[in-house]
Write a structure and sequence with these properties.
312 residues, mainly beta, eight-stranded mixed β-barrel, three-stranded antiparallel sheet, 2 helices, 29% strand, globular
């Protein structure tokens, strides 16, 4: 019998036949063939296709690839600075000057902004002006003080003053309106019911008078009862002027003088134009002003020809 023996020699397998029972050298030993050198195999490289063109030698320059129309991107502009140049320019550029803080424009000039003697605590102002001393047609303006600046409260209104205009020396019985700066009386009055004013309000009844008798101890004040005489006004009977009115504190309390300095200067409803010395407005304008006035704002009324605003 024969058996198979396997031998590993230099990475190859040699197979020989030996006689069973012993190992005898053959009379003419057959030379064992030398194994062939292994062929190197490239791993991970695709096999060349016979149809592919031959590769260029390693040291020959590669031809530039033709850009695909679908995937090409625009070439950088030759005029643009390089990143290094940009960094160098930024390093030598002077620091930016901070933007200037905008300055708020001054408020527009108005009539109240021309006044200089108004008490610092006054935050509401009525300004009554005319184009001179001899006219009764007037302009009435209202202002609120906001952050120290006078701003209009309502649009300018048409008003009326004494039939002989303004006077710097008003006296009793003279149909002029006294110039100056005055406060508003603590109580407002009217034939009609309170329209919603913030001041005290007295609805007039029979025997309510304003004392215009310069010889009376209650001269230039409200009284109820017996007529003080000398032309004192029966307030409850004077319509429409006294439908509503506020007292302008001219000559209050009364200062003894000869001739008397005058009395009963009110802010009231207009009748037919010029007044006996008061300031008059249309009723709707007057009610709006009376409702606006606030005793906590220490209101003042300024009465003067426009050219004399600088006095006040």
């Amino acid at each position: 019998m024969r058996t198979w023996l396997r031998c590993a020699a230099a990475g190859t397998i040699a197979v020989g036949l030996l006689p069973f029972g012993g190992l005898e050298p053959a009379a003419h030993p057959r030379p064992v063939p030398r194994p062939a050198a292994p062929v190197p195999v490239a791993v991970g490289l695709p096999l060349a296709d016979p149809a592919d063109p031959p590769s260029a030698p390693p040291d020959s320059p590669s031809p530039p690839a033709s850009p695909s129309p679908a995937s090409s991107s625009p070439a950088p502009s030759p005029a643009g600075p390089s990143p290094r140049a940009s960094r160098a320019a930024a390093a030598t550029r002077p620091p930016a000057t901070p933007a200037a803080t905008p300055v708020a424009a001054p408020p527009p000039a108005n009539t109240a902004s021309r006044l200089r003697t108004i008490p610092s605590g006054t935050r509401q102002l009525i300004v009554v002006t005319t184009n001179g001393y001899g006219t009764s047609g007037a302009t009435v303006e209202t202002f609120n003080k906001v952050s120290g600046v006078w701003q209009p409260a309502f649009a300018a209104m048409t008003g009326w003053i004494g039939t002989k205009g303004f006077s710097d020396n008003h006296v009793e019985g003279d149909p002029t309106t006294p110039t100056g700066v005055y406060s508003i009386g603590a109580t407002m009055y009217g034939i009609n019911a309170n329209p919603g004013v913030r001041y005290g309000y007295h609805q007039l009844v029979a025997d309510d008078y304003w004392d215009e008798n310069s010889d009376s101890p209650t001269y230039n004040s409200f009284v109820h009862g017996v007529n003080p005489g000398a032309g004192s006004e029966a307030l409850w009977q004077t319509a429409p002027q006294y439908n509503y009115f506020a007292v302008i504190d001219y000559n209050i309390p009364a200062v003894p003088a000869n001739p008397p300095r005058g009395s009963a200067i009110f802010l009231h409803v207009v009748n037919k134009g010029g007044t006996a010395g008061c300031v008059a407005l249309g009723q709707s304008d007057l009610v709006r002003v009376l409702d606006w006035l606030d005793p906590a704002a220490s209101p003042r009324i300024v009465m003067t020809p426009t050219q004399n605003l600088g006095r006040y």
